[in-house]
Amino acid sequence: MTLWIRGGDLVDPIKGLVENQDIIIEDGRVSKILPSGEFTEKGGRISIIDASGRLIIPGMIDMHVHLREPGYEYKETIETGSLAGVAGGFTGVACMPNTDPANDNVSVTEFILKQADKAGKLKVYPIAAITKGRKGESLTEFGDLKKAGAIGVSDDGSPVINSELMRRAVEYARYHDLIVISHCEDMHLSEGGVMHEGLISTKIGLKGTPSASEEIMVEREISLARLTGCPVHIAHVSTAGSVNAIRRAKEDGLPVTAETAPHYFSLDHAEVMGYNTNAKINPPLRSPEDVYAIKRGLAEDVIDVIATDHAPHSLLEKNLEFDKAAFGIIGLETALPLTLALVREGILTIQSAVRKLTYSPASILRINRGVVQEGSIADLAVIDPEFEYTLKEEDIMSKSKNTPFIGKRLKGRNILTIAEGQIVWSRDSKHIGCR
Q: Distance of alpha carbon 304 from its chain centroid, rounded?
């Protein structure tokens, strides 16, 4: 069946344009893009999607999620995480290796891909472990993992402390065409910390994690990129010092890229007041000055990507004393409205915001996605940037509900998601017709 998306404003993150276009999808690919009203039907069965007054964007790519399967299916499964992803407008997610067992071998990588295919919602791109068991002692078999379907390596949540081992990792990864995603944390400095070290941590009596715990390791990865000439991607940037270091690295022409998450430009450490465990994450929510620096880093393209660090946890792991509660929040279903808030603030244009959610992560991961062009795979989302709503727990598709945004007013929502030419999510069917 032919899909005809008509009357919407197509956001092109490469050309930097927003144009009223009709999009024709056939056999899983975009066959035509033409000015709205110029498409002439030639018979046959056509499904028409009315996108009038809405934006059409490439399917978003989240390069940092935790799908929890295998081993932690009570938090999330590949199926429920995929459903949350398409509900949020994502058509691809890269899943971190901190599963049980860790994704450090071919069997686990193949299992993840099999479960993703069974779920049938979006593309799942496995990120394999850098070291066996994520213990930081010996490297995994990068070549075998690449052949099995891994597209990158990371010990996310357990940084590789040994600098010589990390040097070998970035060199081997480049040889095997794998991206290295670095969780930057000096575990000695952050040991015991449960929130940002600052005035609020002192006031409420919680042990803080200093910004330097992130910044020291960011500087190390930059030094390794300088030494080896190999690309390094910095995960979940949260501090002003990290943004400044990455800015200098880019000015020096080093192959360093970076991501941040929506909570780091939407909230600061005041969210922890009242011991709100849904605001407990790692790295922690930082100071207002850090939030400003993250926004500036996004505006100046120092930070290339917006990723969610979607980290589901059960109620049993969050409804505890703050010190004992698990780190992490979910983000697949709130990334879009939180990013659109930056557009309304004038921090980003809609084109640059979309680029950081689509083309940029796809480029860093070296996958042929993140664009809507004639001949491209038909991955796209239809969004309503003006739709306002209060986020309710019962509306969340993820198996876990651990987010500080429940009860908050959000603006902008995904309406429909198409993956490889198939409608995989529709908030309602009123805008879809057939003839």
A: 12
pLDDT digits (tens, 9 = 90+) for 262-295: 999 999 999 999 999 999 999 999 999 999 999 9
- The position carrying tokens 């996958």 is 367
pLDDT tens for 15-26 read 999 999 999 999
Contact 380, 58 (CB under 8 A): yes
The whole-angstrom separation of Cα 408 and Cα 389 is 8
* Contact (Cβ atoms closer than 8 angstroms) between residue 10 and residue 19: yes
First to last CA, the chain: 10
- Domains of the chain (ranges, CATH numbers): 2-56+376-385+413-434 (2.30.40.10), 59-365 (3.20.20.140)
Q: Distance between CA 345 and CA 335 in Å, rounded?
A: 16
Measured between alpha carbons, how far is 359 from 357 in angstroms, rounded to an integer?
A: 7
Mean pLDDT (whole number) for 58-77: 98
Lowest-pLDDT range of 45-54, 62-71, 81-90: 45-54
Please state, in angstroms and as integers, the Cα–Cα distance from residue 267 to each residue in 202, 308, 339, 343, following that order: 19, 14, 12, 16
Active-site residue, from 290, 309, 323, 395: 309
The Cα–Cα gap between 126 and 103 comes to: 8
C-alpha distance from residue 86 to each of 120, 157, 207, 357, 418 (Å): 11, 25, 37, 14, 8
CA angle, residues 7, 85, 322, in degrees to nearest 5 = 135
- Position 43 confidence tier, pLDDT thresholds 50, 70, 90: low
Q: In whole numbers, what is the pLDDT of the chain averaged over residues? A: 96
Provide the percentage of residues in the chain whose pLDDT is more than 90.
95
104 among known catalytic residues: no
Q: What does the pLDDT read at residue 432?
A: 54
Q: What is the pLDDT of residue 430?
A: 54
